[in-house]
Design a protein that fits this description.
Rossmann fold; 6 strands; Rossmann-like_a/b/a_fold; Phosphoadenylylsulfate reductase (Thioredoxin); phosphoadenylyl-sulfate reductase (thioredoxin) activity; alpha/beta
Length: 234
Amino acid sequence: MSLEIDSATLDEKIDRSLDVLEETWGRFDNPIFTCSFGKDSNVVLDLLDRSTVDIKARTALGFCDHGNHFEDTLRVKEDLEDRYGVTFDTYRPDSSYEELVEEHGPRVNQRKPDLCCETLKSKPIERMVDGHDGWITGYRITEGQDDEGEESYDWRSNLDFFEEKEEITHINPIVHWTDQDVWEYHDRRELPYNEIYDQGFDCTGCKQCTLDGEVIFAVDSMEDVGQGEIDTDD
């Protein structure tokens, strides 16, 4: 990677991120930005706004409403849509969490995490990105690292700004940012964020997994989506 994570200043990282987006507008005919309205997505959305006078003219905007968002996530979504004058296209799963519980029993997110995550997140995201040639993400190399620097997602450790996948090219404008960079940027730009971060949580995903005491990652299904190994025939 041409810009080192530790040695670059935040201003240098911002400039590089904006360069990546400028390159994106020239390389891709039909990109999409998928936003979770977590801290990383918020940064990318603000960078998108800084990179163009009309976000919607440059990229499609997608949001997966899996039915298990924290209320504050939806507040942040509304605040940022108002701030930037955009509306995200919403994609929903074919089955709700409650329906999965009815069919597979309680705490299906713990007992069958891959099934739960594939149904509520992976499949809607597959539909969301289908037909697009570039997928703008908030992926970061250091996301998911513990205090010892160990990775929760091994596939993140070798990420670059552009990742050519079988189905689609990932565009990762803040791949070189650290957690500290993300929060400093929030402060600088006065970005809204989900207040659950202030309670010590590292992410704002599904309520069930987050509030169980630890975030349970459905490694197989979400890793397939993360690596671009997605079936878009459904």
